[in-house]
């Protein structure tokens, strides 16, 4: 999609912050809402079974030799198990972690305009879907436009995928069909390239400024691989990639939102 959507100027009181994610409240709603309990979470396991071998090699490589700016690293896959995803969701409710609220502001303002770009019959694939509270805003806009689409939430932990999808399905969608994909970005790209899916319009979402956590070379590879995957579908197939990026130039605020600042405290 060409162009940039900026955060609108709104009163902060419009979007209240919480000290903790309202898991208990949401889970009680799930158990007490008949429409939610009658729906099964459709989670597709697209893992190839090679992750443990690749992970071990990545750990050895990251520790044995310096990488970006001389740092030794461990794979981010180690962070995104069930506990890691829940911890990060807590971070998104920290007042100093401004990224989530900023994207909520943007989506609430522009969700209808973004939904206009999605053709009926599309696949909407979200990379690293997390709790889905931001995504729900866009899906509600698609539902309001009566667009029949398939939404796929791609993430690494089955329990968290199931929990977040159950919460999402409280929205009682009629036109938006929700599914989970259990796997990595690379496995999601391979899944999307399968013949029966390659003929459908596709809308790929990467929210949360995920790309901001990559090294420059990793970010380049990420954009190249996903752009190539979508371009291979042909010009006649409407395929788009939307990426959330942090445009904040206030270094102190960015630091406070980072793991080294208060935004990273759990």
TrEMBL record:
<dbReference type="Pfam" id="PF10017">
    <property type="entry name" value="Methyltransf_33"/>
</dbReference>
<dbReference type="GO" id="GO:0008168">
    <property type="term" value="F:methyltransferase activity"/>
</dbReference>
<protein>
    <recommendedName>
        <fullName>Histidine-specific methyltransferase SAM-dependent domain-containing protein</fullName>
    </recommendedName>
</protein>
<dbReference type="InterPro" id="IPR019257">
    <property type="entry name" value="MeTrfase_dom"/>
</dbReference>
<dbReference type="GO" id="GO:0032259">
    <property type="term" value="P:methylation"/>
</dbReference>
<dbReference type="InterPro" id="IPR029063">
    <property type="entry name" value="SAM-dependent_MTases_sf"/>
</dbReference>
<dbReference type="InterPro" id="IPR017805">
    <property type="entry name" value="SAM_MeTrfase_EasF-type_put"/>
</dbReference>
<dbReference type="InterPro" id="IPR051128">
    <property type="entry name" value="EgtD_Methyltrsf_superfamily"/>
</dbReference>
<keyword id="KW-0808">Transferase</keyword>
<feature type="domain" description="Histidine-specific methyltransferase SAM-dependent">
    <location>
        <begin position="56"/>
        <end position="257"/>
    </location>
</feature>
<keyword id="KW-0489">Methyltransferase</keyword>
């Amino acid at each position: 999609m060409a162009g940039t959507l900026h955060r609108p100027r709104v009163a902060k009181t419009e979007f209240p912050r919480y000290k903790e994610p309202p898991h208990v409240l949401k889970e009680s709603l799930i158990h007490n809402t008949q429409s939610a309990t009658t729906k099964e979470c459709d989670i597709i396991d697209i893992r190839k079974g090679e992750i443990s071998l690749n992970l071990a090699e990545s750990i050895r490589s990251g520790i044995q030799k310096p990488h970006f700016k001389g740092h030794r690293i461990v794979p981010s896959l180690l962070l995104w198990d069930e506990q890691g995803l829940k911890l990060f969701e807590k971070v998104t409710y920290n007042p100093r972690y401004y990224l989530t609220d900023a994207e909520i502001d943007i989506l609430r303002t522009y969700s209808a305009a973004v939904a206009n770009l999605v053709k009926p019959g599309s696949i909407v694939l979200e990379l690293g879907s997390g709790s889905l509270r931001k995504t729900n805003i866009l899906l509600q806009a698609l539902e309001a436009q009566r667009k029949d689409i398939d939404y796929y939430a791609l993430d690494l932990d089955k329990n968290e995928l199931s929990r977040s999808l159950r919460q999402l399905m409280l929205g009682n969608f009629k036109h938006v069909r929700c599914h989970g994909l259990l796997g990595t970005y690379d496995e999601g790209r391979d899944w999307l390239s399968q013949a029966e899916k390659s003929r459908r319009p596709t809308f790929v979402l990467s929210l949360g400024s995920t790309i901001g956590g990559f090294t420059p070379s990793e970010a380049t590879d990420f954009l190249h691989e996903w752009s190539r995957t979508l371009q291979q579908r042909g010009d006649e197939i409407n395929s788009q990639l939307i990426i959330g990026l942090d445009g904040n130039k206030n270094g102190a605020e960015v630091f406070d939102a980072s793991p080294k600042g208060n935004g990273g405290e759990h």
